[in-house]
Amino acid sequence: MEKESRKIMHGVECCDIEEVHADKVQMVSEQMPPEDRLYDLAELFKAFGDTTRIRILFALFEAEICVCDLAASLGMTQSAISHQLRLLKQARLVSGRREGKQIVYFLADDHVRTIIQQGMDHIME
Amino acid sequence: MEKESRKIMHGVECCDIEEVHADKVQMVSEQMPPEDRLYDLAELFKAFGDTTRIRILFALFEAEICVCDLAASLGMTQSAISHQLRLLKQARLVSGRREGKQIVYFLADDHVRTIIQQGMDHIME
DNA sequence: CAAACATATGAATAAATGCTCATATGATAA
DNA sequence: TTATCATATGAGCATTTATTCATATGTTTG
């Protein structure tokens, strides 16, 4: 996922109506959340922005599942699943606990279901 | 944003417990939404997965704004904003209407606010 | 009409991403 | 302990992505 350290934007050359709509420009910058919050938000949604990760999350809607069964369920390699689980853990969307030889993954909290449900509502119009 | 036409996965070599947890594997595939729905969902969340687009959405929380004012507000070029607006339109998160020389953008519906609010709740723990 | 303005878009580029392969880590079983 | 199993991870590659620059489209004004 993007590291988002893109070089700071320059060249704010634009049309001449800045003064006309200065009120809006002002209001926007007043209400804009701080940079690190915006960054965290974007990172969170990036975690949902891939079909493999979405499938993993749907799988975990049903049950707690080990890496190996996830790989089998989704028809992908253990390595691919494991890499994606790392990203989902970083976004705190899933957690895992060891059970003997295996590590069982589960949804970290209820926001995951809510966000996906809202997304579903949106694409279903 | 990813075209997501990645070659179909192969090599389902995995551990030997597939049979052990066959019930889970089965349940997962029964409940998994169809491929095109998963794709649309991932594409939707990708649209939220970039700080520039998140900033545009926050800006539009406050008011309907033309491209030029958006560029001024965010300190970015008109071109960069316009490219991102195209993606947001494709995801049906924003719409625009012409008003004289300008095109004024606004949030397409209320899911946008809800989804971002849920995301905020999640990162705020 | 032409000139000026606001927005859109194509090409190019640097950076990020997802998968594969090989290998490492860490737990259990013999 | 050593062997085996389940998971994690680093490197490499092909693809995707966000921005810039230059230019095109479309509207209004003179």
Protein described:
- Two copies of one chain form a homodimer.
- Chain A is mostly helical and 125 residues long.
- The first copy, chain A, is 56% helix and 11% strand.
- In chain A, β2 (94-99) and β3 (102-107) form a beta hairpin.
- The first copy, chain A, is elongated.
- The relative contact order of chain A is 0.11.
- The interface between A and B is large, with 68 and 68 residues.
- Chain A binds a DNA duplex (30 and 30 nucleotides) through α5.
Q: Could you outline the blueprint of secondary structure elements for this entry?
A:
Two copies of one chain form a homodimer.
Chain A: H1 22-31, H2 35-48, H3 51-62, E1 65-66, H4 67-74, H5 78-90, E2 94-99, E3 102-107, H6 111-123
Helix pairs in contact in A: 4-5
Chain A binds a DNA duplex (30 and 30 nucleotides) through helix 5.
Q: What profile does the largest beta sheet of chain A have?
A: 3 strands, antiparallel
Write the element-wise H/E pattern of chain A from the N-terminal end onward. Answer: HHHEHHEEH
- CA-based shape of chain A: elongated
Beta-strand level of the residues of chain A, as a percent range? 5-15%
Output the radius of gyration of chain A.
Answer: 20 Å
What percentage of residues of chain A falls in helices of 4 or more residues?
Answer: 55-70%
Low-confidence stretches of chain A: 2-13
* Global mean pLDDT of chain A: 88
Quaternary organisation of the protein chains: homodimer
Strand order of the largest sheet of chain A: 1-3-2
Terminal CA distance of chain A: 28 Å
Number of strands of chain A: 3
Number of helices of chain A: 6
Structural class of the helix and strand makeup of chain A?
mainly alpha
Biggest interchain interface, per-side counts: A-B, 68 and 68 residues
